[in-house]
From TrEMBL:
<dbReference type="InterPro" id="IPR003439">
    <property type="entry name" value="ABC_transporter-like_ATP-bd"/>
</dbReference>
<feature type="domain" description="ABC transporter">
    <location>
        <begin position="5"/>
        <end position="230"/>
    </location>
</feature>
<protein>
    <submittedName>
        <fullName>ABC transporter ATP-binding protein</fullName>
    </submittedName>
</protein>
<dbReference type="InterPro" id="IPR003593">
    <property type="entry name" value="AAA+_ATPase"/>
</dbReference>
<dbReference type="GO" id="GO:0005524">
    <property type="term" value="F:ATP binding"/>
</dbReference>
<dbReference type="Pfam" id="PF00005">
    <property type="entry name" value="ABC_tran"/>
</dbReference>
<dbReference type="InterPro" id="IPR051782">
    <property type="entry name" value="ABC_Transporter_VariousFunc"/>
</dbReference>
<keyword id="KW-0067">ATP-binding</keyword>
<keyword id="KW-0813">Transport</keyword>
<dbReference type="InterPro" id="IPR027417">
    <property type="entry name" value="P-loop_NTPase"/>
</dbReference>
<keyword id="KW-0547">Nucleotide-binding</keyword>
Amino acid sequence: MSAVLRAQALGRKYKQRWALQNCDLDVPTGRVVGLVGPNGAGKSTLLNLASGMLTPTAGTIEVCGGGPSAGPAQLAKVGFVAQDTPTYAGLSVADHLGLGARLNPGWDDALARDRIRRLGLDPAQKAGKLSGGQRAQLALTLGIAKRPELLILDEPVAALDPLARREFMRDLMEAVADQQLSVVLSSHLVSDVERSCDYVIVLVDSRVQVAGDIDDLRATHHRLTGPRRDPATLPAGQYVISASHTDRQTTLLVRTDTPVHDPSWTVTPLSLEDIVLAYMTRPADAVRDSRPVLEVLR
C-alpha cells in the first residue's frame, strides 16, 4: 500500500503532557480518508504535525515522500484547513487570494477566482463580515487552489449549520474529483465521514484501533445475538470487539472475514457509526488482533 502519510512512534509533548505518543500510522495515497476518534485522541496534534505546523518530540512523520517542513517545495505539496477555518478578519476575499498567490508557487488563480464567483462571494467583502459557512468555503478555496498533493482538513465543518456543512462537503468532493487529491478529513461527525470518505481510521489514545475501506469494514463487522455464552468459545477468526450479557443473552460485535454459520446466533449488519463507537469505547487494555491493524481489511 502506497502511503501519502506515514508515522512511526510519533509523539508530541507539551511541557509534561503528551498530546500524541507512540503513534504508528499509514494513510493510503489517492483516498479520501476519515480520521475519527474521541476528544483527546491526538487527531489535531497529528494533523498539525503532518502540515508542518508542529515538530515531533519523538518518532518520525513523512508526508508526500518527505518531512512536513523540509522546505518550500515540500510545503507546497500539502494544503491545510485548520479546525477554526482561519481567515484574516481585516482582509478582503480578494486580499486572501492575493496572499495565496504570493505564498504558493503552484497557485491556480483561475480556479480560486472561479470558486469565489460560483460561491457568490464578493471579492471586496472583509472576511470578518462573512458567515461561518462562507469563511469555511474561503479557507477551502485557499487550500485547494495551491494545488496540493494532500489536502488536510481538521474538523472543518464542526461549527457550521447542517446546510452550510452539506454545501462544504459537496464542494470538497467536487474538488477531490477534479484534482484527484489525497484527503485526510478529521471529524467527529461519522455521518459526514460515511457520506464523503472511502477509507476510515479510528484513533484512540494515540493508537490506531482499526483502519480500512469503509465498505470492507461494514462487510466484515457484525452484531451477534444469542443465548448467553463465553466469547472465548468463538471459532478462530472471529474477533470480539465488544460484548454485553444479560442473564440469558449475549450480544457481541465481531469482526470476521468469513460468514458466521452458527445457527444459534442472530446476525445483523452494523452501520459505520456502530463500528466506530465500538472501537472508541473498547477498554484501554483490550487485547488487539495479532495481525497488523492496517492489514486487517483488504
